Amino acid sequence: MRCMTIIIVLIIRTIAIGQVEDSTEIFKKAKTAFENYDYNSALTFADSLVQNIDSVGREVANLRSDIYERLGEYDKAILELKKIECDEISHRIKIAELYIKDGNYKYAAKLFWNIFLQNPELIYPKLRASDCQYKLGLYKEAFTGYKFILTKDPQNYKALKMITSIANIMDLPDSAINYGERAVNIKREPVVLRMLCENYFRKKDYFNTVRWGLKLLNMGDTTYSVSQKMGISSYYIARDSKFDAIALKNKEAIKYLSFAYSLNSTDPITPFYISLAYKELDSLDKSLEWFEKTENMIFPDYLAEFYFQYGDVLQRKEKYQDAIDRFSESLKYDPEKNAVLFYLAMAMDKYYKDKTIVSLYYKTYQSKMDTLDPLVNKYIENRLEALREYIHFNGNK
């Protein structure tokens, strides 16, 4: 810090009144010594320069301001510029920019706004005022500002990028996608691609989530969030795929999710979807392995679905008592999850000797469903008929 202060003194002395021509060479020698870490020589040269710096002109104030800015002493840099009586736009913008660097976004926004009001043909002050509003968390105001800029300059990348960010923060996926797509047509920055990936995922547009996720991966962006979203999206794409593509997409889901899990093993959503993908591949042992990893960490909002899926795998493994326990847990967390009743009835049908309760669950499922798949309904009717015959001849033995 002391050496940088010396440079400030050197510059000021160098351009002091009446000494410019003689001091210039001395200043160059002082600066060279300073840059070569020869501070003693730099001090010697400094001491040989003039002492009178009382008359501070515009050039000196600008130099002092620039040096204080380099030192990170923005408040002092601002004071130096304020010594200059000047109403030029460039000078006012420079002061406003220093207020931003000093973290005073509120006052900087005011300065930029005033410049814009007096010069409405200029986009830059409006852009910087919007930047300040963004920093202050005034997202609606900033959104309006960036939108205005885009009416004047539709290709303004900074405005497109920032308005995409605001839409992302405000959970406006349609706007984020609209502006984000426009932004990446101009420049492809990972931060914008990540927002596109995020908002397509929010809209459950899994194909476009993977589309932008792959572009991120090709750019070397292997973040946890992107990998997880690509894995989950691949899982859902597999569910809507033709038969020959189901296995491929589930394997892709496992690949992305396993990588995400290697980056962050504390988020239960990742292993949950790994278990679901293995379930779809009929790799039931692997699926159970991942369900067991997830059981003690799953989020409360997912418990009903988690136990439903877990129970289904156990039932397919013919572990009916364990399946019944998981289905019962699912209904405990979401009593309105009516689909579980059918699976619970089937597990009880296989395990319980008391067929009366089995019949009751089949009938309860039928009564609670507004619409019922004809094949499922036919299956239930056939089972109820068989159970009536069983109970008639065997009772509840």
3D architecture notes:
The protein has about 400 residues and is mainly α. It contains 22 helices and no strands. Helix 8 (about 125-135) runs antiparallel to helix 9. The longest helix is centred in the middle third of the chain and has 21 residues, at about 245-265. It is elongated and about 115 Å long. The N and C termini lie far apart (about 90 Å). The model is unreliable at about 15-20 and about 50-55 (pLDDT under 50).
Low-confidence stretches: 17-21, 49-56
Helices and strands, in order, run as HHHHHHHHHHHHHHHHHHHHHH
Quickly give the structural class. mainly alpha
Radius of gyration equals 35 Å
Oligomer kind:
single chain
What is the typical, i.e. mean, pLDDT?
A: 87
What's the number of extended β-strand segments?
0
N-to-C span: 92 Å
Question: What key phrases describe this protein's structure?
Answer:
397 residues, mainly alpha, 22 helices, 76% helix, 0% strand
Question: Would you summarize the structure shown here?
Answer:
With 397 residues, this protein is an all-alpha fold.
How is the topology of this model organized?
Layout: H1 2-14, H2 20-35, H3 39-47, H4 58-71, H5 74-82, H6 89-101, H7 105-118, H8 124-135, H9 139-152, H10 157-169, H11 173-184, H12 190-202, H13 206-218, H14 224-239, H15 243-263, H16 269-280, H17 284-294, H18 303-316, H19 320-333, H20 339-351, H21 355-368, H22 374-394
